[in-house]
Every structure is written in C-alpha cells, then in structure tokens.
Write a structure and sequence with these properties.
The protein is mostly beta strands. The chain has three domains: about 10-50, no CATH class; about 60-185, Immunoglobulins (Immunoglobulin-like), CATH 2.60.40; about 185-325, Immunoglobulins (Immunoglobulin-like), CATH 2.60.40.10. The chain has one helix at about 45-50, and strands spanning about 10-15, 20-25, 30-35, 65, 70-75, 80-90, 95-100, 105-115, 120-135, 145-155, 155-165, 170-180, 190, 195-200, 215, 220-225, 230-235, 250-255, 270-280, 285-290, 300-310, 315-325. Strands 4, 5, 6, 7, 8, 9, 10, 11 and 12 form a nine-stranded mixed β-sheet that branches. Strand 1 (about 10-15) and strand 2 (about 20-25) form a beta hairpin.
C-alpha cells in the first residue's frame, strides 16, 4: 500500500491450483509480478499460459479507475459489527447533472460483492443508481459524487469488491479490500473506528443513537490546509457509579507522517491537540470532533483518539490517516 496516495501497489488473485500477483504500473495498467502454481515454488507467466490456456480480456482496462473509499467499524446488536462503507467517484469520470443543491442525476450500475475468508458469497447486490450526493470541488480538490452502505457482519475475515459503471460513458470505478471485522466486547472500555468526514451535524430532535448524527463522509481522506476535517466515533462500555453517572476523558492527538519511512528513522511524536472531560449517564457514547487545519504542514497526518474511563483507569484508542493538501 502506498500510504502517501492511499492506492494499492500489488494485488494477488487466487484460483484453484494457482495464484497470480500483479504490480501496478500506473492508474490503469498492471504487470504480472509472479505466478504460483500448485506443486511449484514459483513459476513464470509463460508456464501458467501453457498449463491454463484460457484467456480473458478485460473490456474496461482502458476506462477503469480506482474509486477512493473508506471503511469504519462500530458495535452492532447481537454480537455483530456495523461496517460503514463510503466511496467517491470523481466528477470527470461520471456523467452527471444537477437535480438540486448537493444532488446530481447519474446513470450508473453499482455492484457490491462480499465474500467470507473461504470465498463463500455473503452479499451480491447489483442495482441502478439514478442520483448521488455531490461534493463541490475547488481549485485544489475536484468535485466528486459519493455513496455509502451500512452492513451488519459477524466478526471474521472478508473480501470486498465494489464497482460502479457509467452506463453511457462505460467508465468503471472500482475498489477491492480485505477486511478483518473485529469483535466488540461488553466489559472493557472500547473505541470504534474513526469515520473521516467533511462535517458532522447533530440533530438534537432525533432519538439517541447513530442516526442522531448526519455524517457527510470524506472518502478521499483529504482536506485543505486552511480548512478543517471531522471525525465521528463511538465509545463503549463506560463504567457507571451507583447513581448511573459516567466520568471519562477524551484526548485528541495528531502527528505528521513522513512520505516514506526508512529503517532507523525516528518515529514522529504525538502532539495533543485538545483533551476534554465528560460526565454522562450512558454506558456508550457517540462523539465527534471538528479539527482545524490552520497552520498544519501539507502531507500525510495521523489522528488518534484516546479515551480513558476515569472511574477505573481503562483506556482505549483508535487511529486514522488523512492528507492535508498544499
């Protein structure tokens, strides 16, 4: 993974009896790096073609592009985990027209395919998309369309693939990801994943819970140097006193990451941006923070949330990586 640009540099496709590892050349082209066949240590691509002569030419290889995406995990009911998934399609790759402010008409076909660790199908969803939310671009960041899904999954390993085809332009935005879905416990203090957002709005008239918060996602994981970035997260298993009250502290930390990290180089230290103490009445709490980018250097940054239960001293933390644009 190229941490600076958040793109996959290598990808392995496994089939019965053999696997092929590809290496990225540019946005639309990949080369065969190595081939492994059953009964051999390593083989040449020529050997694979001789033993497996079938050939398939990808009709989208010149019009396929990587769709930026992000996933975050949260506790769900009945021992399951809620996976929130969001992806972006650059405006220049998709035909679109304004319906209303923040909404564009499109003509897409979306496929979402989820498999377990043994490649057994868990979800197969193909559906048309006729409109999508739109984030306006500027001189630095291009405008993009985005879409999201919430999945309730059992803990374990999964393989995810998402494709969005423009029916007229025949362009194809796609991404693949290997997921390790965590198991949330019920006793010790825990933090969810961090959902990177353009902004988070709390609707106080809505019932307590996730849907109380409108999260405008940021699948690009980018922000402007003079702008801001937001994070949504949840804290679980806060202890309560005899009156049902909680007492906990949340600390927000940042650190600048090197574009490339060589062996022996010092690891940048965390800098505490802010620390807040809360006294509430629930064992779990949704929370969010708007982080001002003013004065931060361009480049990749790490953001960390550290939660501490002040009643029993338990701590939990969660980290996300984003990029500040020049």
């Amino acid at each position: 993974l190229d941490r600076a640009n958040y793109v996959l540099l290598r990808e392995t496709w496994s089939y019965p009896g053999f696997s092929v590892t590809f290496e990225r050349i540019n946005e639309n082209r990949w080369n065969v790096l190595e081939v492994w066949m059953q009964g051999t240590v390593r083989s040449r691509y020529k050997d694979l073609l001789e033993r497996v002569p079938e050939h398939y030419e990808d009709p989208y290889w010149l019009r396929q592009y990587d769709a930026p995406h992000q996933v975050a995990q949260f506790r769900a009911e009945d021992g399951k985990t809620r996976l929130e998934l969001y992806y972006a399609l650059p405006g220049e790759e998709v035909g679109h027209a304004e319906i209303s402010s923040g909404v564009q008409s499109v003509d897409l076909r979306q496929g979402l395919f989820l498999f377990d660790a043994e490649w057994n199908e868990v979800k197969n969803s193909v559906q048309p998309l006729k409109k999508m939310p739109w984030i306006e671009g500027n001189i630095i960041l291009e405008g993009y369309l985005f879409w999201g899904e919430r999945l309730s999954l059992d803990p374990g390993s999964y393989h995810l693939a998402v494709e969005a085809e423009d029916r007229k332009a025949k362009t194809l935005g796609t991404f693949r990801d290997s997921l390790q879905i965590r198991k949330f416990g019920s006793e010790n203090l825990e933090l969810s994943g961090l959902l990177i957002a353009q902004r988070v709005v709390e609707h106080e008239s809505r019932p307590f819970g996730r849907d109380r918060f409108m999260v405008l996602p940021n699948p690009l994981k980018q922000c402007q140097r003079d702008g801001h970035i937001s994070f949504y997260f949840e804290i679980y298993n806060l202890s309560r006193d005899e009156f049902g009250a909680t007492n906990y502290q949340v600390t927000y930390q940042t650190r600048l990451l090197p574009e490339s990290h060589g062996e022996g180089e010092p690891v940048p230290k965390w800098t505490t941006a802010v620390s807040n103490t809360f006294q509430e009445s629930r064992s779990w709490e949704p929370n969010y923070l708007k982080l001002d980018m003013q004065g931060l250097a361009p480049g990749p940054w790490a953001f960390r949330v550290v939660a501490e239960d002040l009643r029993n001293g338990q701590q939990a933390m969660s980290t996300a990586v984003f990029r500040v644009m020049p």
